[in-house]
Design goal:
Helix content: 10-25%
CATH topology of the largest domain: Leucine-rich repeat, LRR (right-handed beta-alpha superhelix)
Structural class: alpha/beta
Radius of gyration: 33 Å
């Protein structure tokens, strides 16, 4: 069923005319050409022969650009174009991977275009991302998802898209550095540039993106330091720089990210800086991933300031010292905790059992020792996601070895804890002047001896 959406603009005192405005012929023809270039197997002109602002395929959206009055029906234009079938609830026009006549120049015919969306459209034919710089300056959303044949690099012409609020390029072959013009997009709220081939450093003028809420540069080849300007993005909710080549330490300015809820810096080349204490000042954090960096240092104990956190990924950091028992005291929302492949020592805190939402606990390949303190209820709830192998000095009580091994095979290799015997005290000999040197135990020592035996 064709779906048509009008964005009606009402103002007090305006009477809307009875006649309905019609899409102009230039935009009407351009929509047909775009549809045919993306999928020529569908007879678009036959299926939608009338005005496309009255009947159009899902994903083609018109809206008023001139307010209607009692004498003027107003003007309508194409505001949104979305291509690539996503789901039954979002049946955009499907793209044909074998189509070869796509020309981004068609989009220059839509001066009021606000949103341009492509999902899984460019999978075989190469299309340059630079060609989309021809889109008008009113564009607010530019989205490319799962388009592996999209290539090229972003140019400084992107700075002309001054109205851009959302830039998503993910799952493509777009490469090169982020241009300096990126920092001029002062209306930008989301920049998701993940799973591409970007490289180089992140420009310092990223600090100018004061409205930015999402910065996701994961799975690329970025290198160098995190620019200090990132710490000035006070509205940032998500910062994901994982799976890159970033190095050095963490800029102290990051403590200014007071609104941050997700921090993922995992699998980069940060080293020998430890986990900075100022991370505890990000009081709204819900997820903290630092795995796969050689940070070293001692296990932090700042969890009283991060009570809302529900996920911690600290695998392979080279952490030393004991696991802080305060995690079990303060982090009641914690659902997973991964501390594997570190150098942690000491006992496993019994307080971790207080975490009623915890469903994954990975402690393998450390130097933990002593008795595993958890109950059968806790072990059963976490199940096979309780991993403790690779800790030679960790043990289980004899009475629970068999039952725990049935619940979780990861516990089957743990050795049985040695039985701690009660200490036996030798009876001391106390000289007595009343017995000519005969040694007799005092009443106090006798009492203690019988009590502990």
């Amino acid at each position: 069923m064709a779906i048509f959406v009008f964005i009606f603009l009402f103002m007090s005192g305006i009477v809307i005319a009875d006649s309905q405005p019609v899409l102009n012929s230039v935009e009407q023809e351009s929509v047909y050409r775009v549809l045919e270039s993306l999928n020529s197997d569908i007879p678009w002109r036959t299926l939608f022969p009338d005005d496309l602002c009255s009947s159009a395929p899902h994903g083609v959206v018109c809206g008023y650009t001139t307010i209607p009055t009692d004498t003027d029906p107003g003007t309508v234009n194409i505001l949104e174009l979305s291509f690539g079938y996503v789901s039954d609830n979002n049946p955009n026009p499907p793209c044909d991977p074998n189509s070869t006549n796509f020309d981004p120049f068609f989009f220059s015919s839509f001066p009021y275009l606000r949103k341009l969306f492509f999902y899984n459209c460019f999978t075989q034919r190469p299309v340059s991302v630079q060609a989309f710089s021809l889109v008008g300056s009113d564009l607010e959303e530019l989205v490319f998802i799962e388009n592996p044949s999209l290539f090229g690099s972003l140019s400084d012409s992107i700075s002309n898209m001054t109205s851009l609020r959302r830039l998503v390029i993910t799952g493509t072959n777009v490469s090169g550095e982020i241009p300096g013009g990126f920092g001029l997009l002062e209306n930008l709220e989301e920049a998701t540039l993940s799973r591409n081939r970007f490289a180089g450093t992140v420009p310092e003028n990223v600090s100018k993106l004061k409205k930015l809420k999402i910065l996701d540069l994961s799975h690329n080849g970025f290198e160098g330091n995190i620019p200090a300007g990132v710490g000035e993005l006070e509205n940032l909710i998500k910062l994901d720089l994982s799976m890159n080549l970033f190095c050095g330490g963490f800029p102290a300015s990051m403590k200014g990210l007071k609104s941050l809820e997700l921090l993922d810096l995992s699998y980069n080349r940060f080293s020998n800086s430890g986990i900075p204490l100022f991370f505890s000042e990000m009081s709204k954090l819900k997820v903290m991933h630092l795995s796969g960096n050689g940070l070293g240092g001692v296990f932090p104990d700042f969890w009283g300031k991060l009570r809302g956190i529900n996920g911690i990924g600290f695998s392979g950091l080279g952490l030393l010292g004991n696991i802080s028992s305060s995690i079990g005291v303060f982090l009641s929302n914690l659902t997973y905790l991964t501390l594997d492949n570190n150098k942690l020592t000491g006992r496993v805190p019994l307080e971790l059992e207080r975490l009623e939402l915890l469903n994954e606990l990975n402690l393998k390949n450390n130097n933990l020792s002593g008795r595993l303190p958890f109950s059968a209820k806790f072990v059963s709830r976490v199940g096979r996601k309780l991993e403790v192998q690779g800790n030679p000095e960790l043990c289980l009580d004899k009475r629970v070895v068999r039952s725990f091994s049935k619940i979780n095979r990861n516990l089957g290799h743990l050795k049985v804890c040695k039985v701690v015997e009660n200490p036996k005290f030798a009876l001391p000999r106390i000289s007595s002047s009343r017995s000519n040197g005969y040694q007799v135990p005092s009443l106090l020592v006798m009492f203690l001896w019988f009590f502990f035996m």
